[in-house]
Design goal:
This protein has about 130 residues and is α/β, with parallel strands linked by helices. It has one domain: Rossmann fold, CATH 3.40.50. Helices cover about 60% and strands about 10% of the residues. The protein has a five-stranded parallel sheet with strand order 3-2-1-4-5, sandwiched between helices.
């Protein structure tokens, strides 16, 4: 199982994103390997807001409709509190609550790889797929 970050979902949706072709090649490898993809609902919220603002409603809805292509982890109150604690502990402005929730979820599932174009995943010790 591989975690799918907002940055990868956005890159897939935006033809002008510099990682657009890269993400499709990575997704092809994921499918060929028979790997599952995992996201959490905060990622879905973040990517839909980003797509809505930058590319419009149709792209945002399209990304939300594709959520059946991967497993969705619904953030619990415990996950949320752990993410807030991690955010406070890291004390870095560039990290978001969504990033911290992602790190919590990735660890909870025992994953080591993320399909992401966000250097914070590598800084946190995960391999970028």
């Amino acid at each position: 199982m591989i975690f799918l970050d907002t940055s990868a979902i956005y890159a897939a949706a935006d033809d002008a994103d510099p990682n657009h072709d890269v993400v499709f090649e990575a997704l092809r490898r994921v499918l060929e390997a028979g790997e599952e993809l995992l996201v959490h609902n905060y990622v879905l919220l973040e990517v839909s807001a980003l797509l809505l603002r930058r590319l419009g409603l149709a792209e945002a809805l399209n990304a939300l409709e594709q959520r059946n292509d991967y497993q969705v982890h619904w953030i619990t109150a415990e996950d949320h509190e752990a993410a807030v604690t991690l955010l406070a502990r890291r004390g870095q402005r560039r990290l978001s609550l969504v990033d911290c929730a992602s790190f919590i979820v990735v660890r909870r599932y025992g994953l080591t790889q993320a399909l992401a174009f966000d250097a914070d995943f590598e800084a946190e010790g995960f391999t970028q797929y």
